[in-house]
Amino acid sequence: MFKLTKKDIHLNQSATGKIQAIKSIAQALVDADLVEDGYSEEIQQCEQQAASYLDNGIAIIPTTVSRHLIKKAGVQIFHFPQGIVWGENGKLAYIVIGIAANSDEQLTFLDKLTRNISKDGIEEKIKNIKTVEDVINILTGKNDKVTLLEHTIDALLDSIIF
After folding, report:
1. Of 24, 26, 88, 136, which is most buried by a Cβ count within 10 Å?
2. What stretch of H or E contains 9?
3. DSSP state, residue 85
4. pLDDT digits (tens, 9 = 90+) for 88-118
5. What is the per-residue pLDDT across 117-131, written as a single tens digit (0 to 9) for each?
């Protein structure tokens, strides 16, 4: 399972475009010892095969073709305050998340992430990120009463033995 820490979050980044952003995030995944060298090249191929803009100013770099290069599960999150044009539709990504995962961990992470970023007003919060804690609160739904209730229900359901 993913454990999000402050060192996984890179605030106030800049890139000339999507490709440079992907290379920077891939290098951060290598530097964090989550993936092997060579990940950047493969992840760029992956990006060409699947759309990765989620919604509300967030894009992901998923692991689909490069799982053999994954050492352990983790994420690297880059914050681009000016936004990066992501995809053919010209939408801006302010947060881009590089995901390293070998299994269903990625699906669990994406499920929780999409629930948290689909809430009203989230894009405005993303545009106004100032601290690492802001990023954590947005992505995890911390300080959001609805999300806290969902997490409580999920924990209760996980504890029930059928």
Report:
1. 26
2. strand 9-10
3. E
4. 788 999 999 998 887 677 777 778 888 888 8
5. 888 889 999 999 999
- pTM given for the model: 0.82
Distance CA 55, CA 53 (A): 6
Nearest residue to 53 via CA among 84, 11, 32, 78 = 84
Beta bridge partners of 58: 55, 95
Residue 151 scores a pLDDT above 90 = no
Task: Tell me the C-alpha distance between 154 and 148, whole Å.
Answer: 10
Helical segments of 38-90, H only: 39-49
Q: Is 68 exposed, middle or buried (0-12, 13-18, 19+ CB in 10 A)?
A: exposed
| Strand, helix or coil for residue 78 | strand
Residue with tokens 């964090």: 32
Residues 6 or more apart in contact with residue 112 via CB below 8 angstroms: 140, 141
Instruction: Tell me what the pLDDT averaged over the chain comes to.
Output: 82
